[in-house]
Design a protein that fits this description.
Length: 287
Amino acid sequence: MAVEHKIVQKQMLAPDVVSVWLQAQQIARVRKPGQFIILRIAEGSERLPLTIADVDPAAGTIRLIVQAVGKTTRQLAELEVGQAIRDVVGPLGKPTHLENFGHAVCVGGGVGTAVVYPIAQALAGLGNKVTAIVGGRTKDYVILESELAQFCTEVIPTTDDGSYGRKGFVTTALKDLLDGSPNPPIKAIYAVGPVPMMKAVSELTRPYAIYTVVSLNPIMVDGTGMCGGCRVTVNGKSQFACVDGPEFDGHLVDFDELSDRLKTYREAESQALKRYEQHQCKLKGTL
């Protein structure tokens, strides 16, 4: 009998950003920070990789945070409590390398904050002082600030337009933090967000020689390393994000190659979303 992965809770965190808790008992029991799942909404649907933002082992549920930017993420965001997802496979990927560094900084850009959230929680649990920097285009796109504040020593929000927190990019706040003689000194930085942001953070921390970890988001199909779609270059060698990552040393990642590969199916993705929107309009009688 197929296992049903029902949605038990849903919450809008920001425009087009939704948090869902769904039943996935076995995954909830063994998942570790940094790992992800691949889901299919229905038979024949696109395989969608998503980081596990949180778990409740007692309830047998996992939390996914999704930004509705394409056809499949739009379909997922439109599901309601009580509806089920066809397949959920995981946990996949290597867990985050964690230790007591003394002081660690977690930097999240947009929905990348959902990826650093479990990392920050685990770092605090190991006795680290944890500072979080979370960024968004506007105030509405800054997510998980209050949740992070429950275990982080400090949470610094930033917005591109200055509508909330510090005006500017997360890198500006991070540089000020690094140059401010933090006590204890910062020994590790975990940064997740758009590729340009992760590249900028890695270049910023390079002269400081601070251990910097990024979580990569290449095109991914099977999650086993067989398809080769998630190939990335790290330290001059090919790696597969699904089995060798998804986290890597940011100072060794070829971000330019990653950015180019992410553009491969952009036109096809745009067309798929357009067809889906037209279909939805027909169903509603507005086309």
